[in-house]
Amino acid sequence: MTTRIQRRNRRKILDAALEVFSAQGFRGATLDQIAGVAGLSKPNLLYYFDSKEAMHRALLDELLDIWLAPLRAMNPEGDGRAEIMAYMRRKLQMSREYPRESRLFANEVLQGAPRLGDEISGDLKTLVDETAALIRRWIKAGQIARIDPYHLIFSIWALTQHYADFDAQIRMIRDGADPMDGAEPYLEELFDRLLKP
Amino acid sequence: MTTRIQRRNRRKILDAALEVFSAQGFRGATLDQIAGVAGLSKPNLLYYFDSKEAMHRALLDELLDIWLAPLRAMNPEGDGRAEIMAYMRRKLQMSREYPRESRLFANEVLQGAPRLGDEISGDLKTLVDETAALIRRWIKAGQIARIDPYHLIFSIWALTQHYADFDAQIRMIRDGADPMDGAEPYLEELFDRLLKP
DNA sequence: AGACACCTTGACTGGTTGGTCAGGTCTGCT
DNA sequence: AGCAGACCTGACCAACCAGTCAAGGTGTCT
Hints:
Two copies of one chain form a homodimer.
Chain A (H helix, E strand, L loop, with lengths): L3 H25 L2 H8 L3 H7 L3 H21 L7 H18 L1 H12 L7 H23 L8 H17 L1 H7 L9 H13 L2
Helix pairs in contact in A: 1-2, 1-4, 1-6, 4-7, 5-8, 5-10, 6-8
Chain A binds a DNA duplex through helix 1 and helix 3.
């Protein structure tokens, strides 16, 4: 049985944890910081989660589905170019709407993904392999250019997530302007040229 | 006056610090770990550097020049397309040869670049602005396509550094194979298509 | 209202970590 | 050899941090 209070507080804690973990990394975050952001006491955090580690795992677990949704949303029956362009657009949208989620995963992967369970990484691999096979079929059908499917996927990740993960750097260079200004037409052009058979 | 021992030990410390900071981030790294890798005692580390922070600053300072060398190496007199392709190749080469440096900067920027001095970021901005102006001239001269120079630079960074920074993820997906396998021809094709007028 | 489970917290603990210091050892020079 | 200064370290400290606990507060159901 989960009560109303439980739902509300677990949500507050995970929100705060996302805020702090994404900005400081796992090791850099402290329970006191998370407690402060959540507006709860530290022992209370540990009443709802067994440990800092459990909090982090719960976050990754919950967010992975959201994070991979655009990839799952690709339609094998659709037109190759249109589907890949749409995927890229959705990923860019994710960087705009969920920059903290992007940085959370970036932090985790950057440190060698020590807290991403084998199960999780297995799911990811399966999904990517399936998508790569799908892209190969689109290539065979002559819908897109003959390019490596894996590197294509990596380049979509790299280009879209860069705007969320390296926000600070882009802001410095662009005098604080919105880092994603002009990103969409640019990536549109880039992938249009790349995919054209 | 700097002695031979000073040079040798400072080098050992900075090497070890790069190893540990790049893998764990600033907050995640401990002086004990660095001391262990360097083969020196912790107090000895602090004999050569005032603090953990000073160590980190010295590293960033020393490595920024190396890191930005490819950008400085662009030749304004050269052919636009050839120069940009060469820059991309050099950056990819950096990701292959200096993945730790890449991750060090990635960690720093990801956390909002709190330890990158204004001076450093100012230098970077100036250099990027100059390069952007140069790219605009190449566009005017009809040597490359009409694309946003800043986003072009960001996309070169994103695509090349991704292979170093997200190494762990790519390895998972590609079953431990060398993440950069096939990256060069892929990026060659991508930027060739992108830059063509 | 009363009972009972659920929720909350101040005070604490044990371990870690950045940094200090007094005193020791080594090196290069004369 | 002997000396000065550079180099090195064990022992220590204060701050920080994840996690514990006993005690009290709160919501809910009858």
